[in-house]
Amino acid sequence: xxxxxxxxxxGPLRDIALVCLAVGVIGVSYGAxxxxxxxxxxxxxxxxxxxxxxxxxxxxxxxxAAGGSPIxxxxxxxxxxxRHLPFGLAVPDVLGRGWRRLLGTHLMNDxxxxxxxxxxxxxxxxxAYWACGLGxxxxxxxGAALGALLGSVVEDTGALGLDAMFPAVIVALVLPALKERAxxxxxxxGCALALSAVxxxxxxxxxxxxxxxxxxFVLISKRQDASPAPTEPDPNQGPEPxxxxxxxxxxxEAAR
Length: 256
Prior knowledge:
Elements: H1 2-7, H2 10-36, H3 42-50, H4 54-65, H5 70-80, H6 84-90, H7 99-106, H8 110-117, H9 122-151, H10 165-174, H11 181-197, H12 206-209, H13 214-226, H14 243-255
């Protein structure tokens, strides 16, 4: 842990702390919704520590609460967690080796990957990944436990609007990266695909439809690499001669 504090500056550490706090608040909503749906108080806490994936946990509880079978809820949750496959391809060197790699894989989620990719250099990426992952591992189950206690008192937990914090935090994290044209167009296309899929897909699955926009990023990046870079005039050579001066010079040379 000392290496994390020494590697990261105050800015990233402050942002990580705020995100972990926001995740804990979302955990309150998750725990309250689970108890309201009929689960025991310990269930969201145990799921929060072992699964550590908010969207799949929300989807699992929602399907069970709607009368679905546990098998269908499990399959839907696994499908939502399929987004971790490209996550693992994006941060293979950050996870480490041996038991650290196993623990690092368990800590993988949207926030840890975003913070890792936002840093420069492998040491800073690793420090941000582990700081965020361990913080969420603590805050998410604690929030779920507080929510389980709250769910026995508040009947309509959706009125609190706690689940709106998660997308707000993710948007705030990815906004600086959208300055790049390829990322911006790909993100907007993915948003359009996800919004169009909301009408006919269950909760948690539209985000997977957004992954269909990934080939667009590769295509735009290849076009940018293939386009020639604009050449700047050499200040030592002076201004380029105009067309009239070029024609007069060529006529003089022909007369000679």
